[in-house]
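Researcher: Please translate sequence to C-alpha cells.
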Amino acid sequence: MIDLLKLVSRKRRVPTALFGLALDGSRLDGVVLKRTNGAVHLEQTFTATLSLDPLTADPELVGQEIRNHLDAAGVKERHCVVCIPLKWALTTHADIPDIAEDDVAGFLQIEAERGFPCDIATLRLAASRCGKHATQIGLPANHVALLEQVLEKAKLKPISFSLGIAALQPPDAESSSGILALAIGETHLDLQITSHGGVAALRALEGALDNGAFDADLIAREIRVTIGQLPAAIRETVKRIRIFGPSNLAQPLADELELRLESLGLQIELVTAYAANEFNVQLPADAPVSRAFSLAARQLARRGSPFEFLPPKVTAWQRVVTKYSAGRLRTAGAVAVGVLLLVCGPFLYQQIHLMILRSRWAGMSAKVGELDGIQQQIRQYRPWFDHSCRSLNILRQMTLSFPEDGAVSAKMLEIRDANVVTCSGVARDNASLLRTLSTMRGASGIADLKVDQIRGKKTMQFSFDFHWQQGGKRED
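Model: Translation complete:
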C-alpha cells in the first residue's frame, strides 16, 4: 500500500550558514557559523540580556525584543538552532528487560506514562539508551510552541531545538563514555553523565550559582547522589568530570570539587578548546567552547542534534492526507494519485521538454538574428551574374529544338530579365517552321511560346517569344 504521508513529507535541509542560539535564564548567547569547503568559519558572536521571559511574556513582545538585539548586533542570518534550557526538561529512567528489540519502543512508552508526572501527550519526548538502562527526556510541548512563536516574531527560522550540554558532550562520541559533564549557566549547573553511547543521567542543579559564587557543598552532594543512583555497571565507568564554562568560574569550581570529591577518585578537566576532530570538520583556532557553537557546528557537519525537540513541519496537505488516509479512502487516494500521475505525466514531460527547448533557443536567438542579418546583406549585395548559367541553358535548349539540316535558323536572339526570350529568323518552308515551334513548346524550360509574325512564301521570316523556366518552374 502506498503511504501518502511519505509522499508529501519533507526533510529539513541544513543550510550552509547557521545562527546558533543558547537560551540561559535571561541571557541569550549566539554565534553565526558558515561552512565552506569542509571548514566551519566563525562569522559573528552575540550576547544579550532579555528583560522579558519567553514563557510568561507576550511572544510578540519577546520576539520584537530579540529582533532589536539582533539588528543592533548586525545579525542577518535567519536559520537558527536553539539550545533549550535544561531546567525545562523532565527526566525518567527505566531498566530494559530481556525483550525483543521491536518491543523496546512500546515498553519505553509505558514506562514514560508511569514515570512522568503529567500526560505524555503534552510532552515532546526523546530517549537515550545505555545498554539496558534508558533515560527518557520530556519537554513540555507548550514551552516548545511558545519558543517557536517567539522566534517567528523575531523573524528567525528554527531548524533544531536541542539540549546544550548534550551538544557540548555528545553521548554518541566514543570519548564520552564514563564522563560527568558540568556546564556552567547563569544561575545553575547542567549535569550530564554519559556511558556506553548514551545519557545515563541528566539534571539541572538549581541554586548552585548565585552572583558568581558556587555552593560547592550543594554541587558535590548532588554529584554523589546522582552517581549513587546509577546502576552499578554504569556507575563504575564514571572516571572523569569535564567542566564547560568561562575560566574565571570553571577554575574555582574545579578546585572546590577536587577537594570534596577526592574519595570518588574522579579526574577533573577544564574544557577550554575543541578537539581537532570534534565534529569531523575543520574549526577556527579561536572557536569559543559554548552550547550555541557546539550545536550549530554539529548541524553544519551534518551530524544532527543529540536530542531533537522541534516538532516536524506539517503542511495543510499533510493534514488532509492524515485525516483521510485510512481504510478505503486511503486506497482510493492512492489510486487517484496513480491515475493523476499517469494522466499528467506526459503533459509534464512535454512542458519540461518545451522549457528545455525554449532555454536553448534563448541561448542561440541572438546569434541566429545576427546570421539572418548577414544573409540579408549577402542577398542585397551579391553579384549581378547568375551562377546557374541560365543564358547558356536557354541557347542549348533552342539549339536542340531547331532542325539540324538548317531548314530553320535564328538570326537574332534577345534575353531580357534573364527569363523573357525573343527570337527572330528565317525558315525554308512553313512545315519546318511549324515542326520547330511544336518541338519548342514541348521542350523543358520553355513556356508561353507565342508567334509574333510570319512573312513570306518561299523564304519565310518569323519572330516569336517565350518565358524561360529554370528547373521546370516559371521564372517571373
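Researcher: Any highlights?
Model: The CA atoms of residues 46 and 73 lie 7 Å apart.
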